[in-house]
User: Fold these one by one.
Assistant:
Number 1:
Amino acid sequence: MSEEVAAEILTTHILDLARSGRRLDGRGLDDYRKSSVVPGFVASADGSALARIGETAVLCGIKLEPGKPYPDTPNAGTLTTNAELVPLSSPMFEPGPPHPRAIEVSRVVDRAIRAAETIDLTKLCVTSGEKCWTCYVDMHVLDHSGNIIDTASLAALGALAHTTMPNVRFGVAEADAPLAIQHYPVECTFARLGEAIVIDPSVEEEGAANGRLTIATDEAGNVVAMQKGLIGAFSPDDVKSLVDRAFRHGDRQRRLAKDA
Amino acid sequence: MSEEVAAEILTTHILDLARSGRRLDGRGLDDYRKSSVVPGFVASADGSALARIGETAVLCGIKLEPGKPYPDTPNAGTLTTNAELVPLSSPMFEPGPPHPRAIEVSRVVDRAIRAAETIDLTKLCVTSGEKCWTCYVDMHVLDHSGNIIDTASLAALGALAHTTMPNVRFGVAEADAPLAIQHYPVECTFARLGEAIVIDPSVEEEGAANGRLTIATDEAGNVVAMQKGLIGAFSPDDVKSLVDRAFRHGDRQRRLAKDA
Amino acid sequence: MSEEVAAEILTTHILDLARSGRRLDGRGLDDYRKSSVVPGFVASADGSALARIGETAVLCGIKLEPGKPYPDTPNAGTLTTNAELVPLSSPMFEPGPPHPRAIEVSRVVDRAIRAAETIDLTKLCVTSGEKCWTCYVDMHVLDHSGNIIDTASLAALGALAHTTMPNVRFGVAEADAPLAIQHYPVECTFARLGEAIVIDPSVEEEGAANGRLTIATDEAGNVVAMQKGLIGAFSPDDVKSLVDRAFRHGDRQRRLAKDA
Amino acid sequence: MGSVGAKDVPVLMSPDGKRIDGRRADELRPLAITAGALKQADGSAFVEWGANKVMAAVYGPREVHPRHLQQNNKAIVQCRYNMAAFSVDERKRPGLDRRSQEISKVIAEAFESVIFVEEFPRTSIDVYIEVLQANAGTRCAGLVAASVALADAGIPMVDLVPAVAVGKVADSIVLDLKKEEDNYGSADLPMALVPQSGRLVLLQMEGHMTRDELHRALDLGVAGCRKIYDVMRQALLDKYRADGPAPGVAA
Amino acid sequence: MGSVGAKDVPVLMSPDGKRIDGRRADELRPLAITAGALKQADGSAFVEWGANKVMAAVYGPREVHPRHLQQNNKAIVQCRYNMAAFSVDERKRPGLDRRSQEISKVIAEAFESVIFVEEFPRTSIDVYIEVLQANAGTRCAGLVAASVALADAGIPMVDLVPAVAVGKVADSIVLDLKKEEDNYGSADLPMALVPQSGRLVLLQMEGHMTRDELHRALDLGVAGCRKIYDVMRQALLDKYRADGPAPGVAA
Amino acid sequence: MGSVGAKDVPVLMSPDGKRIDGRRADELRPLAITAGALKQADGSAFVEWGANKVMAAVYGPREVHPRHLQQNNKAIVQCRYNMAAFSVDERKRPGLDRRSQEISKVIAEAFESVIFVEEFPRTSIDVYIEVLQANAGTRCAGLVAASVALADAGIPMVDLVPAVAVGKVADSIVLDLKKEEDNYGSADLPMALVPQSGRLVLLQMEGHMTRDELHRALDLGVAGCRKIYDVMRQALLDKYRADGPAPGVAA
């Protein structure tokens, strides 16, 4: 049996299940997989967290280094977000320059962090127009069993929430201090399977999906970022109802990063 | 009929026509296509022009930004010329790093601009050895129906001739000022079709050509640049007679850029 | 006869010969090919040497340019080693970004130069933490008839030993001065052919080898670098005996670079 | 969106509900579309939308490059959204940055959702978008241009795909942001609609919107898309009717 | 090794022969190996060794990418040793630098020396090593992790391949250097052993060693490898015995 | 050519018509060619011309890499003109810059104009030029070296292809510019001739020349090429006659 045929049969099966409200791994349509956040996983980083959603695992490390503010925001530090979809984590990923898929993950996480004002970038300014902190958020995907965006975002939030500013190492202040977190954005991703829409898709469901929608919410009741992905479409009513679902699931995931 | 066979038949036909002094689009051997220059096409540039020769279209935008003089020319600004043969403009162009063909176009145009002393680079020096203007000449090919070099060169000249130095934006002087043009180089390209040599080749003629020669002249009677391209050869006598033809066509094209 | 079959037959033949202590080019197992060093081959470099081992030829050029010390070694100049395995030198090399093979050559040579303290990097410091010399060691492989590492290393040593510091050109001192050499590391490479181990392998022997070992020694009786390469293995006793062979051959090769 | 730590923030909304350029909240910028603007491409369109100028071209269905992307049961849709060096205030280095690569991806996915790709197995449909002058909303302008170019190339699709961004500016939900509104506003929500099905094939968002604001934004965007749809259809009609002036860059 | 012109050099060896972290000369840092640490990979292992954290995964035998590397008579072994941006003190730019490329090459050659590649013509066996936290000896830790991952993937090999670095620190030959010893010591000699044949498939060295020191270093390293071998075997036994806790990153 | 805003300009022409190195206007720099200078290449040549040192090698006809460039009815000619890092005053970063890529293109086109490419369909003839020491005129020196290397490799051609640059220095038209003349002169015109047909297969020019000056420059260049042609022929004769000293870099 060729790979294509096998994939097609699996897709048919997943769609059949979804039609009757069931999923391949036994979850209900609105069941999120068990998630966890282990902060401080990497001692060489200024902050880090290993996030897991089901068997998907992403390790995020934060590094703070002295830099120069952008000319148009002289009173703010800078934030650089990068996701590495290394080939270790999935048979689908190949070595080489960043794939658009990896770029999308990093940009979607970046948008949520930025739009939610997760950290106050003006606090990362040391001398106006001259010197600031550059905050590197590096997400390393270790195991891709579906829903990388939510897992990467959870790892990033968990890492930022447990970051120490290395003031002493770089001679910026006399003592290191925790990085202050203002808001806690959480991404929540859905996949359309026929007319059903499931939360937190597995890798097999992503392969069968006709449309993916990620909605990031903060703890104050705002939507801060969205991204539709894959081939497929959502009606405005779909989007409205998914926003409600995203809010419902947001607080639980947020607590994982915050209280880890 | 395979693509190769079709191409071979077209080549044979074009060469047959040329032998009797005729061309595929009805022009005579020394007829240049109708050309036009629209200056100021792009408001986001400091200078711009859309040049068209027949259906070939190139948009050139000029940007002036503060930079640093080269150590060996401390009293001169710098000039950077770049041509993008984007895949939008022709089925022959592919996405990816700059193809040697694109590099050739930009270098041939650059040579004519530089050798003709189109702009006085010493006027782009702000502080000797410290600060100067960098003049970016970016040529964007939009429709490649043959003879990109002449079209790109015409667009560049038209854009330079309608450029404003953004003195105010960069705090260099109290008022913006037009960029002064000293000389007006014009490229004129020929293609050998068997023993006939046609001016301003179409894309089909370029495919059939055995040799291409570009000759740039200025308004004072100098040849300022030449470039032989493609597989093929020209005798010294060919070159001498083509120089005369290039001079004859130069003034008309020059006026398009100057008076646009 | 296919290329693979031809290669396999040659390998079998080389291994058969080695079993009885013989080699394709008539040498004994411990015979090093005739080597030579021509210093000053390139006038545009601050130092240069053309090294040849048999028909393998590598040209090394040294350039000294002002730079900035690394933050963690403020009192030392910097050394940059690069090997270009240009496609001119072998049918096996292709154009493109540096192949891991080229990177290995440059890193192995670099390790020997650095570990042997061939030059005293602190002498390349001009102003602590501010200004230093950057010493570029560029090795250009011209003819790859086997054993590039030893040849490149010999060229590098020969070039360094004949380098003049361009003090005047860069306004660092009133007179140019020879670059002082402290130690003379020499690489010696072996290839395993079955159970025999030959010195200075030819390109054909490298193709047949099951394991390569390079040992760099200095004139004071130290091993300063080693590198096992290719598919294959060496026992610790193999290594110990090869170290003795490397010491035996080192002085002769060293003299070539030193006295050239 | 990039306003953290910025210097001067302009007034984006007047007391009487007029925007920085005088538009009402639900008003589009002027939009002009020329179908068939290029000679070499199989289909093309030039869009002037406010101060945006965007050219799109379509090639295909044709052979797939690189080959290993070929699919046996359908065409693939490849998109390259690119900004000219001179299209923005500060010169942009040629080549696709990360933003352009992300936009290329979501636009390709949007079109692959409406093109009948099963009809052209083992081929590629290549969509090229060149932003020549940028003033916010270029991805939507590019999508609109490319959609007309696909129709001009005769590629069978479910429907044309209009697109527009909705934003939040000084607490108002407004249609079709221009540059200052995008830079200093508090939310940006670009979307692309399939009018026939009423579904969105592109949807992104960044900023702050409550549940209620988001609902209004979606409704405003869908209404805006339907207006843009009419302009797109008219551009194609004009082209078919007259086969009029020779194709070429509108000058 | 990078100590020329450096500022402060720590005391690496106490008068009573204790190293900077209290170890004896022939003592290894603590080593923990989890076989089967990942779900997607065909085989995997997570290694914590001193302050190193390294993950390895194996895929294959599978189709060769890029195709032209395919060999008709055997599998090829491809290795990618990569360091995470946050794994070292100063953030490392993502992507393979020259050091990583060299290490990838010698590790691939080491494994191709022990895998029965003739059994899988026209395929690739892909070995991926991700260094998550680095503290000297990462190439050996990576090799150990990858070797267990290969076994976990069921790839037939002559033997497991333990690896360790020996060094010279304050004139002593010591086993398994940690970061300060590597930075300020005077020699570093990483090696990988095939216990079954007693031969080395990886061997590198940089620094200063006399003939005699080198002999002792080789012997010390071989003895160290045999201890590591036992830990590797135990990790696989634990995995096979229990098929125990679901595979996943040890947390 | 690069003299705008430069500091000191040397005297390039003495009152009695002697050039900076004492040559007359129509005089070549010393030229020595060694055919068959390398062992591995199918054909090779080493050229010392004034203070230029250039090595060329030819491989082929052989399989085309990358494959998709293969042509069914003829061989393709690929050329790579490269400058060693140490070949110029300021160290050049390794790899092909834009100038080198342009030169590679025009040289490949020059050779494809004289090689009987139809005889070797589906193959590549690869021409490699390495500039080891540069002093103006390297593209011509490279072309001369490569032309002899092609003959040494037995590639069938219409003729050898001599090349030389003509320039304008202090209002005189002079043959074979050296570095100072190239830097501070007012025109540079490199050309390559097919002596058999009297036609030029490479021709470039930058600077200022009147119609009349250009005519004289062309004539002077053609005459120069014919002298160079003799040296090229002699080099090949020397090689064939003696098969003399073992091939290898002339030292």
Number 2:
Amino acid sequence: MKEQPDPAAALTVTVLFFAAAADIIQRETVQLQLHEGVTLADLQQQLYSRWPELSQRLPTLMWAVNEQYATPQTILRAGDQVACIPPVSGG
Amino acid sequence: MKEQPDPAAALTVTVLFFAAAADIIQRETVQLQLHEGVTLADLQQQLYSRWPELSQRLPTLMWAVNEQYATPQTILRAGDQVACIPPVSGG
Amino acid sequence: MIQLTHEPLDHAALLQSVSSHQAGAALLFLGTVREFTAGQQTLQLNYTAYESMALGQLEQLQQDALQQFPVTAVGIQHRLGELALGDVSVAIAVSSPHRADAYECSRWLIDTLKQRIPIWKQEHYADGRVEWQHPGEPTGQVAEADSEPQSGASTDGQ
Amino acid sequence: MIQLTHEPLDHAALLQSVSSHQAGAALLFLGTVREFTAGQQTLQLNYTAYESMALGQLEQLQQDALQQFPVTAVGIQHRLGELALGDVSVAIAVSSPHRADAYECSRWLIDTLKQRIPIWKQEHYADGRVEWQHPGEPTGQVAEADSEPQSGASTDGQ
């Protein structure tokens, strides 16, 4: 974890939830206060700590940052829109 | 050849020609007087003798008797409709 | 629906005719008149058929498809007469519970139609040549002297 | 044409949008709501999406198809909201000079769409269950207790 304790460097990230993920946490949007340098993996850990059933029920979640699929190593920026994407079933 | 010389057993067969085959012989229909027991192969030989360019220009002709593809061994009956079918190109 | 007609094909009606609550997929194939084939420019096509036999063979093709593939419904339309660039010459609609079967059946139908149904296509080229398409035969022999290159059909051949 | 809409799909317009004098073949795939899947009866489906991302991903899918296959044009429509039996959920149109490429491209598009585009399908079964379809996940965990058998999707799955 590379979280920096400098509150001046805090950033706000919005996380969107869809379909079964939204049903599990019973909301469609979560706002998180993070610190500069935080990665998508760090954000995921925060969410899984708060809602353990998210990863238990949906072991193969995908994630997007600003509407592009993203790896856990992605570094988050202020204003980023993160999305928690259960296995898709369009078509 | 199993042609029988009995004129009482004569039969009339209509042969239809399509596409390039019709262009080559310059007609779409030929009426032939045949004898009982004659096969499609016999009929083909008569036509190829009369219009040698038919088999020369169209070496892979197919034939139908009464709207079904037929083998050369097919025995012809009075009133049969034979068709000379150049390689098809529908679609 | 099986149809052989000189009128423009109503392929929307064909597609509608295969729709079913049992189907999860429907596939509509259209063969259309293409302008260029191997560098040769087509102006129009003329389709002719042994109509009564072609209709019977199309019905047989439909029955064969329903027996050979796990599909729900099958329909085929073929147009005859003069067709301009972009016109639809053939329409094939298939519906099935699972999509893989619709794709396989549709391909089998158009491949087999092109081998089996007594319909012939005459190409009218921009350079004035008029030529029957006879797959597997040397081209340029029938309507013209043998000065022509090998040419494919100007719909969806090969 | 790329379209994500709550209205019934105008797939005739989609098919028209890919027509071209360069094409010898056009293929229209429709995914439709099927009544029975593995013995389970579906009453309706509800499709939801991460709409802005789904639209961008569909545009990307169109570009990828045009780069990977020798096709003339590609169009995709996906419907959202409540769909009844027989309704069309997705329409994919492809045109190409040669038909084999249209078939391959069309299959690749529907297969890849089902893997990549953030759209989710909720099944409403006749027995009252309401369930998100999550391919690859155990079913019956989300909306209900784990008493349900494995179930496929009720459109053109597998």
Number 3:
Amino acid sequence: MIRIRDLERSWREFRIEDVNLAIDRGEYFVILGPTGSGKTLLLELIAGFYLPDGGKIWIDGVNVTDLAPEERGVGFVYQDYALFPHLTVRENIEFGQRVKKLPEEEIERSALEMMELLGIEDLKDRYPDTLSGGERQKTAIARALILKPDLLLMDEPFSALDLRTKQRMQDELKKIHRESGVTMVHVTHDQTEAMVMADRIGVMMEGRIVQVGGVREVFNKPLNEKIAEFLGVENILEGIISEVDDGLSIIDIGGIEISALTDLEVGSRVNAFLRPEEITISKVSQKTSARNNIEAKIEKIMNLGAVVRIELDSGLVALTSRRSAEELGLDRGAEVYASFKATAVHVLEK
Amino acid sequence: MIRIRDLERSWREFRIEDVNLAIDRGEYFVILGPTGSGKTLLLELIAGFYLPDGGKIWIDGVNVTDLAPEERGVGFVYQDYALFPHLTVRENIEFGQRVKKLPEEEIERSALEMMELLGIEDLKDRYPDTLSGGERQKTAIARALILKPDLLLMDEPFSALDLRTKQRMQDELKKIHRESGVTMVHVTHDQTEAMVMADRIGVMMEGRIVQVGGVREVFNKPLNEKIAEFLGVENILEGIISEVDDGLSIIDIGGIEISALTDLEVGSRVNAFLRPEEITISKVSQKTSARNNIEAKIEKIMNLGAVVRIELDSGLVALTSRRSAEELGLDRGAEVYASFKATAVHVLEK
Amino acid sequence: MPSNPLNLIKKPKGGTLFLLFTAMGLVLVLFITITLLDMFYRQTEDLPALFSAARDPVVLTAIGVSIAATTCSTLIAFTFGVPLAYLLARRNFPGKSLVEGIIDIPMMIPHVVAGIALYGVLMRSGVIGAPFDMLGVTLVDAFSGIVLAMLFMSLPYLVDTAREGFRSVDERLENVSRSLGASPWQTFRRVSFPLAFSSIYNGCILAWARGISEFSAVLIVAYFPRSAPILIYERFTSYGLSSSRPIAILFVVICLVLFTLLRLPEWRRKR
Amino acid sequence: MPSNPLNLIKKPKGGTLFLLFTAMGLVLVLFITITLLDMFYRQTEDLPALFSAARDPVVLTAIGVSIAATTCSTLIAFTFGVPLAYLLARRNFPGKSLVEGIIDIPMMIPHVVAGIALYGVLMRSGVIGAPFDMLGVTLVDAFSGIVLAMLFMSLPYLVDTAREGFRSVDERLENVSRSLGASPWQTFRRVSFPLAFSSIYNGCILAWARGISEFSAVLIVAYFPRSAPILIYERFTSYGLSSSRPIAILFVVICLVLFTLLRLPEWRRKR
């Protein structure tokens, strides 16, 4: 559907370079990256709002690199929805058909259909500044979808919504995606959002796409330390592989030995990544060959609401529910066991 | 330390009324309330930036209601720290002593001491716009503390900081509080922050202080439904007490019976509040007399990162760690048991 | 409680500082108020002169010339200035700040100097005057000269205001419009122009007001046909204050009424 | 790739619309550029006249009068205008928008009308002129009259700009200053004034520039001592363009140089 080769562009303080990407027809693709990584610029380049300094873009096999935005047939939904403030909801939705000079009758009919589909027909004569965040988002999506684009680009579509509306709109958007089959590319800095929405994820950092893959793959096997850190893998342990036995290796992390799955050889220097929520804290040892078990002392407990963040003297950080922390009577200075599956450790050669 | 009686003031769209509050010397008091509840205005009234329309304020036994801010001796730290942008860190910190026309020598010595105490002596010649959030906060706190106020008012002091800096500064501020013994009043809309920082909490909603108490008391025993909802008690169940046995009552919630602790009589109509993180989801029944156990079907699972939010067909919402949800193989449609302690249910007469 | 009567937003104390400041500010406010009210008040002692001025065809013609000329110059400024403003708001090109500087020059140089410079180019042998002269059109001491002098002086007001108007239109709205299939021209007509319209209209009013009050450059470039300011000045030098004041009052009242009428749609829209 | 040479920020297409707009904008830019450059260019054909004007004591005196008068009027506007601006930025009181409206009147009424009104109050029998006359001070056709006319016309520029400057100072900084023990006056001197200073300074420059270019009101109120615009106009009517142009050029160059020098500290600070 989209193919991007060696894309390069500077704009103000943003810079993207060496972007190569292929997105399949009908896919829900999320570009995940921290603020300032150039995600929005990449989306704007695909839409044709800017021309690249170098590289090429194909949409549906057509080289669109030099085409004007109005010739690309790509829908775009901005972060705060960029509704035309001087037009009503209905006029916003009809805008694209009106500039195409379609027959009045057809314009009205399809606008009505689209509004009914999204349940916003009651809002049709309202102006954008009287709408709630969710209503604005629906209007913006309707305005883009009514032209039946093959491709819909969305820039942080949920960031302007409150939590409840966001959860509802996420379901809604997934439904639209399933039913319309339109290819969606969605940009966000929010890991949870990416997990919830994506078929595949492209991680973007400092103007480059640094990793592409399925949700589990990206979150459980980040390609390097920087990506791991951005994705919230708080435990990044340096060590050396001291033993290999049928795929299950022992890694020596400054005296502590942990088992992990890896194909690397004995003596390799590695980083081991471990998400804090993979660690179980308990008062009894749970050691098995496939499960690591580390004796540790709690250095600090921080209450984060439903979750408690526990820092151990071994440097490990664990997240556990407040309830279980209370049931176990965990407290500063308590002697505990931190256990985690060997498969939860993701090993990368340094 | 502070006593407030029948305080009342309107300002733009904000309005506070009927505020009565007593804060003890040396206390760390958090005013917790949603955005727009008038928290900042209350703080500004205590500082004397505005005069009340009605009511009185005493600080340290002195009626300060009509005093100018410069006569109250109260430190104030604004949300984004409001550093003087035309002065360096050191000049900001020295400001208060300079307007008091203290001897130059004393000004310099005590400013240096204060900067050393907070570890910002290296920044002394920097201007505020070159500082990070944490550095700004330290400067603002130093600027207020150098005058040795009896009372330090802080308006959302952590909201401009990133997560890591916030956690570090929370520790730092608690330390300052312990060592200086200054009375601190801290305004926030963030429940977690209130839990972490407060000795006591005052909940403020729609311009009124609606509940005052210790942290556990406020979070576990919200006085009414609105407070409960704001504090994140997602499960609010309506029912009737059907049986009472030695303090342990049975409440009939639309056919489902749960046990809870209450002194109310049989037949009372009640609301039962239950925090979602108090609910354990398991595949086996765990019923005991002191533990509720409800059979339910999972209607929806939402991945929130480290935590999973589970909606059950009985209407209950539970939060559990992603790891345990995975280990249990929870999925939409799964039959599970939701269990929670009788003591986790907080019962209130309707 | 503070006794300062100005302390209505209930700020504690600080009354003395504000009292002093009020006293100082009052000096300026009184200077302006007295100057203007005095003019009207004095005229009440000679109302017949005011009424006869209001019927004098010479006076009415002069005011008509002023209104017609500033309206023409505003229309020209609108036609050429709006595209320029859009360009300045949306495009970067080498020399852009030079162009912005050039547009603002008429605001910065003394009005008389502008008049001298305009006279130099508009006279029969001037760079602009000569080609027009060949077509049989005289610019100096002609209605067209008044229009051009007003245009020169009022241009920056329109271009600057319209440019800020276009700048305040979120560029992403134009992007979205393009992605919905609209050409650059359709985008300008359906999105940018309507959204900047209130600023553009405001700029027109400013230019209109600046044009009608222009005296210096018009005095030098086109004494005839007499526009209102010229007539007021002529009467003042020839017959003194009592003869020029009725015309001045008539002129300023008409200006302010028209000004208010022009602002009306804007005020309506804001409600 | 687009062939439009102005397309430097690499926006796709839309070239024809922008080309048309560029052409239209160019008309205005050329009108201003040609008018001004022509004045300078013509003078190069008669450089001796320029040099002799630069040595003519009458010319130099007139320019000196202009500079001195606008400097005085700016200082007066600063002294009384800054407190007023602070008041307007920080306090709400009944009639506040009326006061703001009054301050802006001099910008809205035709300059000649302002001159007539000023003449009426400043003349010996006028409301302001009479008390001064008793003290033996004449305002009409005197240096003080020039200063007052300039003050009247330039006041709004200073007050408006300074007011916006004070408004842009976060009020919470003043609150914090008070909580640190500073009195209202200390807060004004140490926080509000320094933070608004760059706007205030800007307002002073605008008022200074407006004052020095004022012609209409000065012409009516104080023909003598001749300020530069009056002299230029007098030479124009008596001896024609070739006699007035050198003075105009000298005056505008001096104005622009002074203007640039006044802006210098501001540009420095921004770097």
